[in-house]
Amino acid sequence: MNQDSPSRFVCLVVLDGWGIATPGPGNAVDLANTINMDRFWASFPHTQLQASGEAVGLPRGEAGNTETGHLNLGAGRIVYQDLARINMAIADGSFFRNKALLEAVAHAKKNNSKLHYMGLIGAGGVHSNIEHLFALIRVASQQNFQNLYIHLFTDGRDSPPTAAKTYIARVREVLVREKVGQIASIMGRYWAMDRDHRWDRTQKAYLALTKGEGQLVKTPEEAIDMSYSQGKTDEFIEPSLITKADGTPVSLIQENDAVIFFNFRIDRPRQLSRAFCFEDFSKANLAFEYDPFLVKYAKKHIVQANTPELPFERGPRLNNLLFVMMTEYEKHLVEAGAKVAFPPEIVDMPLGRVLSENSKKQLRMSESEKERFVTFYFNGQQEIAYDGEERYIVPSPKVATYDLKPEMSARELTEAVLGRLREDNHQYDFVLVNFANP
């Protein structure tokens, strides 16, 4: 990368999905005829890196993925993912001093009102973690705040389809142990966590939580049994309000209250959060910000079209409601006044910026399936192309599934990389290439 010797450059080639594992019938890499890789391994210095679990900011034992791999490579350090960050905060005790969480408790105390926790419970660990709810219950207990109500969204997708009672029992055990709070409502994630602008579902969830418009039950288990008797699994449990002895709901979310939405994954809480936070609800149909979960390999920053319709007749926004997101679901919600318990971790100096600020020229190449990873993720999850950064993306094959063309666009990408290097006479200082097909 000496400017006096422009023909010398660094090329980082990422073979997406390639790994080192114990030989066996399920090890495709070991079973393949990898002549070139075998020669490289035998002829050149090499080492091995961990690309999963804590090495890339994930919880121990969790499989790595394209997002975390490119994010950590570009950052040059471990970038902890939301689940791992929250787990670490609970372990080191900082969770119980979290400014946004304590602000929610203080708001409810100041207004002599209620504190509500809502989110998904289950075994999946994809959208939420039940241990985070348990830690939140401890926050209320430590702050000597009794007026706590829990609104549970049952899973049935990332967890077994009829496991809700197991998790309800665990929540109840913690409430009894900590001597605070009670379960106020239960509903399937189908209603509370839609992400595709099917506002009729969000409407049912919101009106149940705020108006008590749902089926009335004496216990969460009663709602679960009613659902199962109708052939509906946990995902589809109707919005249900737990009642007091007089038959009225235990608690609704009302003005002056505080709400903590404890899902950490950003995509599925957005619609329900907008219903609580947006003053002008006609703007709730604004396009969502880019979300890696909404379209797995999105090609655009915006993946939803703006639509002008009012999502549903919500009425005025609840007055003086303090709303806390466990993570930053989107900036629109922050702009609407929502607080964030765990803001995004900022990668200040990704490799792309370091190269740019040192007047180095860089090239990013992949096929379109992996475009986001050699750009957005490698640049520290920032929508920016640095000075001196060029991008060249080869179209991925237009097939229904890639088992119909498992090589994908590897040959075309290789030819394009070599062509760009020849055209530029090796003027690049750094080249990043992602091969999607392994």
Describe this entry's structure for a reader.
Helix 10 (220-229) links the parallel strand 5 and strand 6 (240-242). This protein is 33% helix and 15% strand. The chain folds into 2 domains: 10-80 and 347-435, 3-Layer(aba) Sandwich (Alkaline Phosphatase, subunit A), CATH 3.40.720; 82-342, 2,3-Bisphosphoglycerate-independent phosphoglycerate mutase, substrate-binding domain, CATH 3.40.1450.10. By secondary structure, the protein is an alpha/beta fold. The chain is elongated. The strands form 2 sheets. An 8-stranded mixed beta sheet has the order 5-6-4-3-2-7-8-9, sandwiched between helices. It contains 15 helices and 12 strands. Residues 295-305 have low confidence and may be disordered. Helix 6 (130-142) runs parallel beside helix 7 (164-178) and helix 9 crosses helix 11.
